[in-house]
Amino acid sequence: MPERHEQLLQTLTQEYRQAFPRSEQGQERAAKVLVDGISHGARTYRPFPLRVRAARGAHITEAGGDSLIDYWQGHFANILGHNPPVVTEGLAAMLQEGYGLQTGLPEEREAEFAEVLARATSADQVRLTTSGTLATMYALMIARAYTGRTMVLKVGGGWHGANPLALKGVAHSDDGYDHVDSAGVPSSAEQEIVVTRYNDVDALERVFGTYGDQIAAFIFEPCPSIAGFIPATDEYMQAARHLTSHHGALLILDEVITGFRYCASGAQSLYGVQADLSTYGKVIGGGMPIAAVAGRSDLLALIGENARPRVWFNGGTYSAHPLSVEGGLLMLRHLIAHEDELYPALAEKGERLRQGIERVMAKHGVLARCTGGGNEVIQGSSLGTVYFPLHEDLEPRGAEELNDPRLCDVTMTERVLKLGLLLQGVNVMHGLGAISMAHTEEVLERTLEAFDAVAQRIRAEA
To answer: Which residues contact 457 (CB under 8 A, 6 or more apart)?
Structure first.
């Protein structure tokens, strides 16, 4: 930790403990029975995470009763905000009718959801599961079975869930992203997972030139979350499609976050690219647990019961859970029906907030930048992160720059800004997060006031 942050962090931590005693008590209780007191690593931070008792629209209610503006929004899933009536009313009616919990049997609603998803994304077929982690794992298994190859290519900082076939090059360290991130994965992961630089066409061509006949699949997010939601350049996306086709590898686009976030389809549709396989989750569930692998029928045929060899893609007991499928149907239909007005509104909110944050920070002499804006293909975005470059002229292309403490003040983003904003009634992830339709003009203005207050504290520390 930079020494110049120590005093400010100590002060913020003390104030945070005083402001949220119920959450601290909840953490102490949870830590006795849950490892680290949580069930997902992204939900914790020092000294302890907020615990919520209610959530609606743009706001969450902390265990002690305080209301906060929320930009985490269900791991970026809640595009309409927390618990939107368009979904909750339908689920409540379903339960009132005496149906909705798991039966373990197929129903017509499952096929209906798959039809809507396949039609919107131009996929031949779909197989459902319960999480993005499982979807990316199954997609890579299909790729390895289809090609007869074992090597997986991904970008540095790319997060595809706790998937053992892609758990290399996630967290930044002294060697960049050239390391396996988890204990317990097969020792072959070191050789079988190759990491390349995001938005670097030359690097991509070099790695295919070296390993082209060994690569089963190239998997990446069109706008990687750990890379600040910086969108892929059109050149990079077209190169990925060309190189995978030329070398007999599959292109897998991980659209767990980006699917239905920029338009009522996958982000790939904006590039005019069709991946061989795509993974979807988050937004498509309307707040319920559902994910999917969608793509070419000849690839998905490998999971059929008559396939030899067969990929065992059974998805889990709660695959196509009745409430999840209904929640997803309600959400997808709403987004498709309102695409023309909804997505431009989200993009405008995102641009206003990102520009406003940079403006209020600069007013107090704090060098801060926002990522997540559009490019030549992605015209606008409701996602974003805030970073603190150590040099004015830094122009990050991806995770390599954003997460390198030699280039950016990562502690400022992940700890100082996080705690400072919580004390101002705003919850963010990586400096900002996801804007929903529930984030009104009033909410955005209140958010900028919170950033202004934190900027004053940062400036006073300098």
So the answer is: 8, 12, 420
